[in-house]
Specification:
There is one protein chain. By secondary structure, the chain is an alpha+beta fold. It folds into 2 domains: about 35 residues, no CATH class; about 180 residues, no CATH class. It is about 35% helix and about 20% strand. A hairpin with a 2-residue loop joins strand 1 and strand 2.
Length: about 220
């Protein structure tokens, strides 16, 4: 860890915020140390990454390689997973039939002056060869789309590393089929606990939202 901090620190510009730089690297190592004994992402983390990369594929088609990859902010420990031309997007990937989603921080649905859209992707297990994709296959699909943009390709590999992903055969075993996608507009009436409306004495918070109670906030597909 110390070697990586020294090596990457030498590549930072003199104007870089040292505190932010250190926190970013420490957060990366925290994720790596949180991996299982086999070095693999947990099932929940792998599902979340699968959903983010699937949306990234769509974003590349709509906004181009550079804008899409630059807009994937989740691995950088940003509160939301994407910042794209439509605004902030938070992606939640769940198993089909799950009644709720988990909000991991007070900042996650707090866009300040910017708009946030909550995107829920539901997945079901798929038998091999019946139209599903594995996490490893999805990574390959993104790499294929970036093959003509070396800068975006290098940035994508760095982001994969930040997310705790390494090429492993285990990530090609489970295949998932997308069964439903829903977009929700997070406005002032949306049921959430944003940092801006929580007492300062509450420093952290996690909570769950019942999907059945969010129908009034469904909005048009952004990507």
């Amino acid at each position: 860890m110390c070697n990586e901090i020294a090596r990457e620190g030498l590549q930072e510009s003199m104007e870089a915020n040292a505190g932010t730089f250190m926190l970013r690297l420490l957060a990366r190592w925290q994720r790596l140390l949180a991996l299982g004994a086999d070095g693999l992402l947990s099932q929940e983390a792998a599902l979340g990454l699968h959903g983010e990369l699937s949306l990234l594929l769509n974003a590349i088609d709509q906004f181009g390689t550079s804008t899409a990859v630059n807009g994937w902010t989740g691995p950088k420990d940003a509160p939301q997973d994407f910042l794209l031309p439509p605004g902030f997007i938070e992606v939640k990937s769940i198993r089909s039939g799950s009644p709720e989603i988990k909000i991991s921080s007070l900042e996650q649905l707090d866009g300040g002056n910017g708009s946030i859209t909550l995107h829920v992707r539901e997945y079901a297990n798929s038998i091999h060869g019946t139209g599903g994709t594995s996490l490893g296959q999805t990574v390959r699909q993104v790499r294929d789309k970036l093959k003509d943009d070396p800068t975006a390709a290098l940035q994508f590999e760095a982001l994969l590393k930040e997310a705790g992903y390494t090429d492993r055969s285990e990530y090609f075993v489970e295949e998932l089929r997308l069964t439903r996608t829903t977009w929700y507009k997070v406005d002032e009436m949306f049921p959430c606990l944003p940092r801006s409306k929580v007492p300062a004495s509450i420093t952290k918070g996690r909570y769950s939202l019942q999907l059945a109670q969010l129908d009034a906030f469904i909005t048009d597909t952004l990507i």
